[in-house]
Specification:
Elements: H1 5-48
Length: 81
């Protein structure tokens, strides 16, 4: 182990500089490229559609007034004091 304080300070400074350079490279070059690729794939999926083999389901409108006796089915609740 180094007992010389001058070498220890130089080692700490070098490790700090390597860390700073690593994070600058990571956030300045690699991360924007990854984000750009992900953004382009999402936009491509939104434009073309993610699943082109989707089966379209036809929606049906439910008519609640089919039964003419629906007025007879109403229940009235009264509260007694």
């Amino acid at each position: 182990m180094n007992k010389n304080p001058k070498n220890t300070v130089i080692t700490i400074i070098l490790v700090g500089l390597i860390g700073i350079i690593f994070f600058k490279v990571l956030f300045a070059f690699i991360l924007p490229i990854i984000l750009f690729v992900v953004l382009m794939s999402i936009l491509k999926g939104l434009i073309k559609g993610f699943d082109e083999d989707q089966v379209t389901v036809s929606s049906e409108i439910v008519d609640n007034n089919l039964n003419g006796n629906s007025v007879k089915n109403i229940v009235t609740i009264t509260l007694e004091d």
